[in-house]
Write a structure and sequence with these properties.
This protein is α/β, with parallel strands linked by helices and 378 residues long. The protein folds into 2 domains: 20-243, Alanine racemase (TIM Barrel, Alpha-Beta Barrel), CATH 3.20.20.10; 250-376, Beta Barrel (Lyase, Ornithine Decarboxylase, Chain A, domain 1), CATH 2.40.37.10. 30% of the residues lie in helices and 25% in strands. It has helices spanning 20-33, 45-49, 53-62, 73-81, 96-101, 114-125, 152-165, 181-200, 216-219, 350-357, 361-371, and strands spanning 14-18, 39-43, 67-70, 87-90, 107-111, 133-136, 169-173, 210-212, 214-215, 229-232, 250-262, 267-268, 274-275, 280-285, 302-305, 308-313, 321-324, 336-343, 346-348, 373-376. The protein has a 9-stranded parallel β-sheet with strand order 8-7-6-5-4-3-2-10-9. A 6-stranded antiparallel β-barrel has the order 11-14-17-16-15-18. Strands 12-13 form a two-stranded antiparallel ribbon. The radius of gyration is 25 Å and the shape is elongated.
């Protein structure tokens, strides 16, 4: 029988290159933008926007960030396992089982319903090691999990919540749905009116309660926002305001796996979506919608091969893409392909990618990072 050696390395068909130094630089820039007296909460949901909680936590620890935002219990555990000893806040409301499951990791929960307050109060009475709680209010905001004080029912529920868990409340929060100047100013004013109503109708001590509604977008909006905590995610990963020096922290790459020349009239991909108008040389690339490249990501979409922009042809397959490399005569099988990022002096930038993908970079970063192998470029 032939002697088959055991493979020691896995060759990945596609991969994300993550740049920890850029995350650190972006974080330093973000800290420099904070108004006097405000603090930063680093949002690490979706495994740090696909970058890997285990590699991001050491950066935020080194730069002295004391607050982290997560959504799932898995994320909370990963943050603690990475050595973070500061405050972890869940930035959405949780189910009963999530609240119970998160107790060992000591996270602060959001509360916006009497039901949640009753659960947390019961857990505290049973001796659970409860952390501080944040009263989540809508304030004409996202209308997804905030208590709406514009209604009689909402105000009644709020008073009952305050009676039940008031001493455990350490924060009052909301989430602004828009960061255009007029809308942000209006939302901020409504939030402050609702906060004032809560303090006027409770025994809460203002000095003991952190009031917060800021985000990455509100931080760079140019508008004054009354918040003691900016909950920032996108800006840490270079998704916003590259004109201020923020750099994208992830690039997506693959390789050419096949080259072939097809005559005029040939159709490319499923549903014969693309018809060649002349003889073209076509490269097959080992990445597809299973890797976070949407099926309709073609027509006006491009890639980088040998520092040249090449168009994608046909609908995206599960694990492959076709591209026209007729004008790149020296391309060979195994060549690196850049879906997003830099190759030599050529670049597919954020604006181009958002236009091609028809979504925001936070969406694609989280998708790519969770679907593809990650390589950390030190």
């Amino acid at each position: 029988m032939p002697n088959n050696p055991i493979a020691t390395d896995v060759v990945h068909a596609s991969w994300c290159e993550v740049f920890p130094a850029r995350i650190a630089e972006n974080l330093q820039l973000t800290l420099g933008l904070l108004p006097e007296g405000a603090q930063l909460l680093a949002v690490l949901k979706a495994d740090a926007y696909g970058h890997g909680i285990g590699r991001v936590v050491p950066i935020i620890r080194e730069l002295g960030v004391k607050y982290v935002g997560i959504t799932s219990n898995t994320e909370a555990r990963a943050v603690r396992n990475a050595g973070f000893t500061g405050t972890i806040m869940r930035i959405r409301t949780a189910t009963h089982s999530e609240m119970v499951g998160a107790l060992p990791d000591q996270i602060q929960e959001q509360v916006s319903t009497l039901y949640a307050a009753q659960i947390l109060n019961k857990l505290a009475r049973e001796g659970a090691n409860m952390q501080g709680l944040h009263l989540s209010i809508n304030a004409c905001g996202m209308s997804r999990d905030g208590l709406e004080l514009a209604t009689k029912e909402g105000r009644k529920a709020c008073l009952e919540i305050l009676d039940l868990i008031g001493p455990r409340i350490v924060g009052i929060c909301s989430h602004f749905p828009s960061n255009t100047p007029h809308d942000l100013a209006s939302s901020n004013q409504q939030f402050q009116r609702d906060v004032a109503w809560i303090f006027a109708h409770s025994a809460l001590n203002r000095a003991d309660v952190k009031v917060h509604a800021g985000s990455s977008l509100s931080l760079v909006s140019g508008q004054s926002v009354t918040t003691e905590l900016f909950r920032c995610g996108a800006i840490l990963y270079g998704i916003l305001r590259q004109d201020l020096g923020f750099k994208p922290t992830m690039e997506l790459k693959s390789r050419v796996t096949n080259l072939a020349t097809y005559p005029k009239g040939s159709t490319i991909g499923y549903d014969r979506e693309t018809v060649l108008q002349g003889e073209r040389r076509v490269a097959n690339i080992s990445i597809g919608y299973a890797n976070g490249i949407r099926r309709d990501f073609f027509d006006q979409s491009v890639l980088l091969i040998r520092e040249q922009i090449v168009p994608i042809l046909g609908k995206i397959s599960m694990n492959s893409i076709s591209a026209d490399v007729t004008d790149v005569p020296d391309v060979i099988i195994g060549d690196e392909v850049v879906v997003f990022g830099l190759q030599g002096t050529a670049r597919i930038d954020t604006k181009s990618m958002e236009r091609q993908a028809d979504t925001i970079m936070a969406d694609v970063f989280a998708d790519w990072g969770l679907r593809n192998h990650r390589v950390y470029v030190e």
